[in-house]
């Protein structure tokens, strides 16, 4: 089985920038017997199949999109009781002939293993099942996301591959999704307004207003962490206002009750005085009748 790659751009990074992909630290003993470390530039092959301690150079649009992506996926766990999202992890699919990858984000719809999140994740050993892999492109490595990864993720058997293409050379940023059909990737269904649909978790993905937008199955946009924080702050402020209002109402109710109790006490005292006067009047009348 062969899977064609997507159209890929040439590498536009200057040759004099050896660390444009990232670096790996090499530790060695120098001539003085001192243990030292030096950075070694990463290659495209290193990006495709990274080691655990590799460090990649990521630009702000990439980071912002990735942070929101992971945040939104984790907020949607309610649709996946055994769901789990990993980011910046080395994933060993344990498929013969395929070396481990380092996806920007990988979504499992079954992950029940007691794993400590350290080191390389062995998929088959943990009896896990992957649903989708997400890549956010960078200028220096976009051709790998649209090239070799496109081929190897299909060979691994990943059901959905979603690419947030923030490094598109013509500034036509878009979100493209592919689903595995008969061992090759086909474009995912796209709603004209909401974007591509990952039906298994009830999420829509699109690029709009210079940012990644992820919406739930009702079309409601999932807030990013900043927006969620502001919403929480607003809700907390409303709770404080409502609590103060309830306390004021309770105080007014207590005041009214105290006033009512005072009025009742006055009324009871008046009734007692009236009863006393009535008793005294009756006694006086009895004395007068005796004297006749």
Instruction: Report the CATH superfamily of the largest domain.
Output: tt1808, chain A
CATH class of the largest domain: Alpha Beta
Largest sheet: 6 strands, mixed
By DSSP, the count of extended strands is 15
- How many separate helices? 5
Radius of gyration: 36 Å
* Mean pLDDT across residues: 83
Tell me the span between the first and last alpha carbons.
133 Å
Q: Any guess at the CATH architecture of the largest domain? A: Alpha-Beta Complex
Question: Element order, helices and strands?
Answer: EEHEHEEEEEHHEEEEEEEH
**Contiguous runs where pLDDT drops below 50 for at least 5 residues:** none
What is the helix content? 25-40%
| Estimated structural class | alpha+beta
Spatial order of the strands in the main sheet?
Answer: 4-6-8-9-10-11
What characteristic shape results from the CA principal axes?
elongated
Provide the domain count.
2
* Percentage of residues in strands: 25-35%
User: What name does the CATH topology of the largest domain carry?
Assistant: tt1808, chain A
Jot down its keywords.
5 helices, 292 residues, alpha+beta, four-stranded antiparallel β-sheet, tt1808, chain A, 35% helix
């Amino acid at each position: 089985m062969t899977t064609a790659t997507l159209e890929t751009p040439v590498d536009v990074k200057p040759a004099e920038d050896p660390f444009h992909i990232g670096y790996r630290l090499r530790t060695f003993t120098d001539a003085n017997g001192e243990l030292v470390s030096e950075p070694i530039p990463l290659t495209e092959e290193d990006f495709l199949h990274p080691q655990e301690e590799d460090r990649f150079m990521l630009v702000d649009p990439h980071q912002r999109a990735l942070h929101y992506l992971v945040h939104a996926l984790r907020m949607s766990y309610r649709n996946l009781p055994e769901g789990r999202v990993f980011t910046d992890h080395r994933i060993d699919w344990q498929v013969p002939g395929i070396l481990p990858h380092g996806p920007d984000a990988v979504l499992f719809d079954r992950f029940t293993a007691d794993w400590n999140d350290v080191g390389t994740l062995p998929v088959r050993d943990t009896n896990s099942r992957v649903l989708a892999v997400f890549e956010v492109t960078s200028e220096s490595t976009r051709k790998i996301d649209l090239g070799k990864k496109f081929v190897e993720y299909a060979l691994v058997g990943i059901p959905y591959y979603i690419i947030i293409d923030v490094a598109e050379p013509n500034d036509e940023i878009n979100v493209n999704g592919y689903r595995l059909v008969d061992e090759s990737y086909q474009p995912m269904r796209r709603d004209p307004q909401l974007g591509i649909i990952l039906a298994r978790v009830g999420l829509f993905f699109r690029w709009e207003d210079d940012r990644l937008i992820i919406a739930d199955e009702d079309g409601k946009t999932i807030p990013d962490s900043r927006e969620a924080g502001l919403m929480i702050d607003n809700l907390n402020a409303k709770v404080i206002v409502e609590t103060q209002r309830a306390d004021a109402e309770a105080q007014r109710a207590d005041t009214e009750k105290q006033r009512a109790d005072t009025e009742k006490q006055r009324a009871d005292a008046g009734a007692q005085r009236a009863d006393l006067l009535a008793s005294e009047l009756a006694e006086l009348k009895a004395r007068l009748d005796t004297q006749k």
